[in-house]
Write a structure and sequence with these properties.
The chain has no helices and 11 strands. It has 162 residues and is mainly beta.
């Protein structure tokens, strides 16, 4: 039968449970990360019209690690965006050069799901990123713009690290 130790080591802050010392997951708020090469990783970016702040791009504060190889991006529009023109597209990729180095999502003004597995520039599925890469979102096209308060989307970027 198991033995439960209800004491806590106050000097080290270690907690115990029914089967021994409990891990504290230092540096992880919830969940965790798998730090093995070759495992498919997922990074999630949420986008709203307010994120653009009246401009045509914004930094997501997400950084993909050096050695990451892009696999695909799933773009899910839950609530349609109000755009400057019907030909506007969203580009998600290297901050500052999203249209060249990243993925492009047409029709963000229509609720639905789009998958891009081709990428462009440094975001092709056959090449690893040479350095840590900040991720940004940009809107382009005739009269590029996104109305504040419009639209909600989620982008799941899948990559492996070599």
């Amino acid at each position: 039968m198991g033995y439960e130790n209800n004491t806590m080591n106050l000097a080290s802050g270690s907690a115990y449970n029914h089967y021994g010392k409990r891990g504290t997951e230092d540096g992880v708020v919830s969940g965790g990360s798998i730090h093995k090469d070759g495992i498919v990783q997922e990074a999630v970016v949420y986008i709203t019209g307010d994120d653009f702040g009246g401009t045509t791009s914004f930094d997501t504060r997400l950084t993909l690690p050096a050695g990451a190889v892009f696999r695909d991006a799933v773009f899910e529009v839950g609530e349609a965006f109000t755009l400057g023109n019907a030909d506007n597209v969203f580009s998600i990729g290297t901050n500052g050069s999203e249209a060249t180095n990243g993925v492009e999502i047409a029709n963000p003004d229509v609720a639905g799901t789009t998958v891009d597995s081709t990428g462009g520039g440094t975001w092709v599925p056959t090449a690893a990123l040479a350095a840590d890469t900040a991720v940004g979102v940009a809107v382009s096209g005739t009269t590029a713009g996104v109305t504040a308060g419009s639209g909600k989307a989620k982008v799941v970027i899948r990559y492996t690290k070599i």
